[in-house]
UniProtKB/TrEMBL annotation, chain A:
Record SUPFAM superfamilies: Thiamin diphosphate-binding fold (THDP-binding)
Coiled-coil residue spans: none
Domain Dehydrogenase E1 component: 155-452
This protein's name: Dehydrogenase E1 component domain-containing protein
Secretion signal span: 1-15
Top-level division of the source organism's lineage: Eukaryota
Keyword Signal: yes
Keywords: Oxidoreductase, Signal
Automatic annotation (TrEMBL), chain B:
Organism the protein comes from: Sphagnum jensenii
InterPro entries to which the protein is assigned, alphabetical: THDP-binding, Transketo_C/PFOR_II, Transketolase-like_Pyr-bd, Transketolase_C
Summary of the function given for this chain in its UniProt record: The pyruvate dehydrogenase complex catalyzes the overall conversion of pyruvate to acetyl-CoA and CO(2). It contains multiple copies of three enzymatic components: pyruvate dehydrogenase (E1), dihydrolipoamide acetyltransferase (E2) and lipoamide dehydrogenase (E3).
UniProt KW Oxidoreductase keyword: yes
Protein name: pyruvate dehydrogenase (acetyl-transferring)
UniProt enzyme class: oxidoreductase
EC nos: 1.2.4.1
Keyword terms: Oxidoreductase, Pyruvate, Thiamine pyrophosphate
Catalysed reactions listed for this entry: N(6)-[(R)-lipoyl]-L-lysyl-[protein] + pyruvate + H(+) = N(6)-[(R)-S(8)-acetyldihydrolipoyl]-L-lysyl-[protein] + CO2
């Protein structure tokens, strides 16, 4: 499959030496991917099948990214191997013209029986898993290359994320800030994906992915500052808690409306492709978001434009109170990939190693072949949707408890770590108490800080404050000075 | 040598000021076009390459798009070009070329695409087809079909895509095939385009330009005759401009692309074939400034886009009847150029707004409120506003004509306003 696509692209070699370089690197990367996908035996992983850690950089020595200003040749109308072309761009096969019907969309064979395609395939798309529920390596599993350093780092981040979520949630319940939502149950998705990506990849998150920021180095203080919306908040107090954003960590600010970040990710990938930048964009969304119009639009665009985006769906079973059975009739979200002409995979979102391997492979494919990939990570939303929700109203308590205690992804990964002799209960106890202390310290230090000043209400609406807003600011200040006693004392002017 | 050149420049400036004064005082002048000797190219006429100035006396707080501003004088020096060039008299452009409005848009876009490799155009049929109104004709061959991106039909998606691309460093120009289709992109425009700079605390900028033809055309039906400026005017974080002549179309297009803020450029379907001479030299128009179309003493008529031509047509009748209307094309729909408008109101004390928006919630409604708030004491009569009715635009020709403000209505409204006080 990959070889054929390379051959086909090579027909256009005469157009530009750049394309030659590009197609060659595509072939090389694809062969690595084939290797990876062909890995069958669990024991083979000992012989270290290396995942390419860097994508081949295509930097032309002349400073013109000419090839990136044109679409991939594969984006032209579907062609078949034959001679002669009709006005649709279809090449007609002279020999057996009775076997095919010719349409602008391409050639299709015909059938004389009235048959409808079934609404679902008889077998659901299987789910990729490497570690079973008990943290044991599954049969025939080929583990990715994860050394002790990386594995322990992933685990530490997962624990820190879990601790941060628990304590911040409690802080909201105590009234320290007005809103929070947790990632409990989805730590593996957060951290394993972050670990598999590079810091150059731009992450368009929905809201349940602070683990990615945590991995990239967002400090607990920075998280707390945003939740408390104090004057150190990067968002300057303008967004709700949990709507983090950091331009230096390539994590655009979270926007509340569901799925609006999907087309953004496609656009950012378009920009990366135009600049010949060997990075991809990654966008997270939930099962509910897959019903939004933006999802369909973004998927379609990404496939048509052939841009490097990873669409990671956290199918956690619920969209607030709507279960997936009421969200879509298809076989989850993975089945939609093929409908848009996009490669897709279903993975066990609670299996850290499987998530890591999947994202790593998907990233290589996305960048080297310049294509979008859909990844459906099956998981369970252990916590409530947010602090404004009480999920006991629509699901059973024992179901939540079951997933929280027995099918916890953090515990599962810990079992594997302990099996590898890379972790022990003592270290775990210490880590948890350390994390707890750090999180509490962050909460304590963020709380008392001052709120953003009144002038920050009017800045950043435009690049500079226009006269009408200056006028409105004066009005507000005049009102405040008239009613000084009604104005909160911890908000500087 | 430098001193000589500098003194020549000073002399030129003085002569410019002199010219400006004389134009302003002549009552028959319809145009304020100034010619300035650039120190680099003096000529024996004393008039070298034409350099059209935009008004300089107002301070603009949208700093980044500031064009070359020269503090010339307090005279309203808006360089304005009027379509019926037979009224010009002697103020001819020496280095100019004539083109249609859509060609002016194309020229502006082409210059920006040439100048900045991060500029790209995203929309339906903008690539090899050249755009539904031929604004991007020939670009895909020149710049590549990746920079002139043909998208599938999903306005919300390609608007969102452009926002994401803008956050990553590109400067996309989003073309809506018709402004009305951008209603589908309203979520992305209102919730993300206008907001992300603010909610991210200034970390991400969205320098997009959203453009497309809108307004009431010739029997295009209700869905293709939308006036989207009404709906978008409330969204914080956006800037809106409306072009009306080839000159300001090109200038506004260039300024919008160079702006760091998201800008919506409203074009009008019926103005694309307007012909005019524009300068060869590169120029941009200030995004926040209004344009003085015709100076006057009796009444200020504020208008924009296609209605400008209905107003100028009505002005001929009014002048014959002895009135002296001052016509201002407000051009900047958000924010309003309250300085120019204010100066005019202080002079004439009467205002009539002529717009194509619906009566309820249109640009006229907001403008009326803003003028009343700021210049109530200057007014001798209530602010008049002529706008379309609150009905969907019908297909039938005569009915459609009834929903758009026509010159006789404008004349009647002016007469009525001028009779009061």
């Amino acid at each position: 499959m990959f070889f054929n696509s390379w051959l086909w692209r090579s027909r256009h070699l005469s157009r530009s030496p750049l394309l030659l370089l590009r197609s060659r690197s595509i072939f090389l990367a694809s062969s690595c991917t084939t290797e990876l996908l062909a890995c069958q035996n669990a024991s083979e992983h000992q012989h270290s099948r290396k995942l390419p850690s860097t994508v081949p950089r295509i930097r032309p020595w002349w400073n013109v990214s000419w090839s990136s200003s044109y679409r991939n040749p594969s984006m032209e109308a579907e062609k078949t191997v034959a001679s002669g072309e009709d006005s649709y761009g279809n090449e007609s096969k002279q020999a057996s013209s009775t076997e095919f019907l010719d349409f602008p969309g391409g050639k299709v064979s015909y059938i004389n029986e009235l048959q409808f395609l079934s609404e679902s395939s008889p077998v659901r798309v299987p789910c990729f898993q490497l570690l079973d529920e008990y943290g044991q390596v599954a049969e025939h599993a080929c583990l990715p290359e994860v050394d002790k350093l990386l594995a322990v780092k992933m685990y530490r981040n997962m624990v820190l994320l879990q601790t941060m979520d628990t304590l911040f949630y409690e802080a909201q319940r105590q009234g320290q800030f007005t809103f929070y939502l947790t990632t409990i149950g989805e730590e593996a998705i957060n951290i394993a994906s972050a670990a598999a990506l590079s810091n150059d990849d731009i992450v368009y998150a929905q809201y349940r992915e602070p683990g990615v920021l945590l991995w990239r180095g967002f400090s607990l203080n920075e998280f707390a500052n945003q939740c408390f919306t104090n004057n150190l908040d990067y968002g300057k107090g303008r967004q709700m808690p949990v709507h983090y954003g950091s331009s230096k960590l390539n994590y655009p600010t979270v926007s509340s409306p569901i799925a609006t970040q999907l087309p953004h990710a496609v656009g950012a990938a378009y920009a990366l492709k135009m600049e010949n930048n060997p990075a991809c964009t990654v966008t997270f969304f939930g099962d509910g978001a897959s019903s939004e119009g933006d999802f369909h639009a973004a998927m379609n665009f990404a496939a048509v434009l052939e841009v490097p985006v990873l669409f990671i769906c956290r199918n956690n079973g619920f969209a607030i109170s709507t279960p997936t059975a009421e969200q879509f009739k298809s076989d989850g979200v993975v089945a939609k990939g093929q409908a848009y002409g996009m490669r897709s995979i279903r993975v066990d979102g609670n299996d850290t190693l499987a998530m890591y391997a999947t994202i790593k492979a998907a990233r290589v494919m996305a960048i080297s072949e310049s294509r979008p990939i859909l990844i459906e990570a099956l998981t369970y939303r252990v916590g409530h949707h947010s602090t404004s929700d009480d999920s006991a109203k629509y699901r059973k308590q024992d179901e939540m408890q079951h997933w929280k205690m027995i099918r916890d992804p953090v515990f599962r990964f810990r079992r594997w770590l302990e099996g590898q002799r890379w972790w022990d209960p003592e270290a775990d106890k210490q880590l948890r108490s350390e994390s707890r202390k750090e999180v509490l310290a962050a909460i304590r230090s963020a709380g008392p800080l001052k709120k953003p000043s009144l002038s920050s209400l009017f800045t950043d609406v435009y690049d500079s404050v226009p006269s009408n807003l200056k006028h409105q600011e004066e009005e507000v200040r005049a009102t405040v000075s008239r009613h000084w006693s009604d104005y909160p004392s911890d908000v500087p002017l | 040598m430098a001193a000589a050149v500098a003194s020549q420049a000073v002399a030129a400036m003085a002569s410019v000021a002199g010219i400006a004064v004389s134009l302003a005082s002549s009552s028959s002048s319809q145009v304020a076009r100034l010619q300035l000797t650039t120190p680099a190219a003096p000529s024996s006429f004393g008039i070298g390459r034409c350099h059209l100035l935009t008004r300089s006396s107002a301070t603009s707080d949208f700093g980044s798009t500031a064009p070359k501003k020269h503090a010339v004088s307090k005279v309203a020096t808006n360089a304005v070009v009027v379509i019926n060039s037979d009224n010009y008299g002697s103020a001819l452009l020496y280095f100019s070329h004539e083109l249609l409005l859509f060609e002016a848009l194309r020229e502006g876009l082409e210059e920006e695409l040439d100048r900045d490799p991060t500029v790209c155009v995203i929309g339906e049929d903008v690539g090899h087809y050249g755009g539904s109104y031929k604004v991007t004709k020939g670009f895909a061959e020149k710049f590549g079909d990746w920079r002139l991106l043909d998208t599938p039909i999903c306005e919300n998606s390609f608007t969102g895509m452009a926002i994401g691309a803008a956050m990553t460093g590109l400067r996309p120009v989003i073309e809506g095939m018709n402004m009305g289709f951008l209603l589908l992109a309203y979520n992305q425009i209102a919730n993300n385009c206008g907001m992300l700079h603010y909610t991210s605390g200034g970390q991400f900028t969205i320098p997009v330009v959203i453009r497309g033809p809108g307004g009431v055309g010739r029997q295009l039906g209700a869905e293709h005759s939308q006036r989207l400026e009404s709906y978008f005017q409330s969204v914080p974080g956006l800037q809106m401009v409306a072009c009306s002549t080839p000159y300001n179309a090109k200038g506004l297009m260039k300024a919008a692309i160079r702006s760091e803020n998201p800008v919506i450029l409203f074009e009008h379907v019926l103005l694309y074939n307007l012909k005019e001479k524009i300068p060869d030299e590169e120029y941009i128009c200030c995004l926040e400034e209004a344009e003085l179309v015709r100076p006057g003493e009796d009444i200020t008529i504020l208008t924009y886009s296609r209605m400008r031509y209905h107003v100028t047509q009505a002005a001929k009748t009014l002048v014959n009847k002895g009135y002296d209307p001052e016509i201002i094309d407000i051009r900047s729909l958000k924010p309003f150029d309250m300085y120019t408008i204010g100066q005019s109101v202080k002079k004439t004390h009467r205002v009539l707004i002529v717009e194509e928006c619906m009566r309820t919630g249109g640009i006229g409604a907001s403008l009326r409120a803003a003028i009343m708030e700021n210049f109530f004491d200057e007014l001798d009569a209530p602010i008049g506003c002529l706008s379309s009715q609150d009905v969907p635009t019908p297909y039938s020709g005569p009915l459609e004509e009834l929903t758009v403000v026509q010159p006789p209505q404008i004349v009647a409204a002016v007469e009525q306003l001028c009779m009061r006080g």
